[in-house]
Amino acid sequence: DAGVIQSPRHEVTEMGQEVTLRCKPISGHDYLFWYRQTMMRGLELLIYFNNNVPIDDSGMPEDRFSAKMPNASFSTLKIQPSEPRDSAVYFCASRPTGGRTEAFFGQGTRLTVV
Amino acid sequence: QQPVQSPQAVILREGEDAVINCSSSKALYSVHWYRQKHGEAPVFLMILLKGGEQKGHDKISASFNEKKQQSSLYLTASQLSYSGTYFCGTESPAGGTSYGKLTFGQGTILTVHP
């Protein structure tokens, strides 16, 4: 398996524009996580899914953020409208069900909102 | 609620030891440790489950005290390759609505100099 795949790797957009980040988890993994990394907050959990169902979105900062998982092999994180304070690295991670299972991270998307 | 890590940063000379602590205000099922190199994705080091578990990985080991809801990562005889940001991730006990949720701390930046 190629691991967790995120696209794009880098995104530069203007304030007010819509941004869509994409993630393909590892096949067979039941859990998918979206994290935002900043110096101040470290790895902040935004939302996670189990079997394509959103379980906890309490980390989503505002209504401008939304996430979907239409099937087991694809998820999106959308920001609309984007703001400069959304600039960060966004990671997607997946893990299988089980008590001793690690999470596998994608390479991340570096988002810059100008 | 993110776990709290301490210290925020550590600077070492090669061969010196370091301890990174992770504490949670909630009951824990497991603690995960990851290391992230600059510009890369976090990489899994080890998982510790309930039961006062201790694990080792080369010269990196960890302990988990579930009564105190704390975990510590021990780096012995540090090498240049140990430099990076270390994250602890915590998972709540099974049966709750947040089972499977993996929440990370703000990270500890470790720098090893020759």
What does this structure look like?
The complex is a heterodimer of chains A (114) and B (114). With 114 residues, chain A is mainly β. Chain A has no helices and 11 strands. The mean pLDDT of chain A is 94. Chain B is built from no helices and 11 strands. Chain B is mainly β. Chain B starts with a strand and ends with a strand. In chain B, a hairpin with a 6-residue loop joins β4 and β5. Classes of the chains: A mainly beta (114), B mainly beta (114).
Rg of chain A: 13 Å
H/I helix tally of chain B: 0
> Which residues of chain B form runs of ≥5 with pLDDT under 50?
none
Shape of chain B: globular
* Largest interface between protein chains, with number of residues from each side: A-B, 27 and 25 residues
Over all CA atoms, what is the radius of gyration of chain B?
A: 14 Å
Estimate the mean pLDDT confidence of chain A: 94
SSE arrangement of chain A, N to C = EEEEEEEEEEE
Beta fraction of chain A: over 45%
Task: Return the structural class of chain A.
Answer: mainly beta
Number of strands of chain B: 11
Global structural class of chain B: mainly beta
Q: What is the straight-line distance between the termini of chain B?
A: 37 Å
**Biggest sheet character of chain A:** 7 strands, mixed
On the 0-100 scale, what is the average pLDDT of chain B? 90
SSE topology sketch:
The complex is a heterodimer of chains A (114) and B (114).
Chain A: E1 5-7, E2 10-13, E3 19-24, E4 31-38, E5 42-50, E6 53-56, E7 65-71, E8 74-79, E9 88-95, E10 104-105, E11 109-113
Chain B: E1 4-6, E2 9-13, E3 18-23, E4 30-36, E5 43-49, E6 54-57, E7 60-65, E8 70-75, E9 84-91, E10 102-104, E11 108-113
Parallel strand pairs in B: 2-11
Antiparallel strand pairs in B: 1-3, 3-8, 4-5, 4-9, 6-7, 7-8, 9-10, 9-11
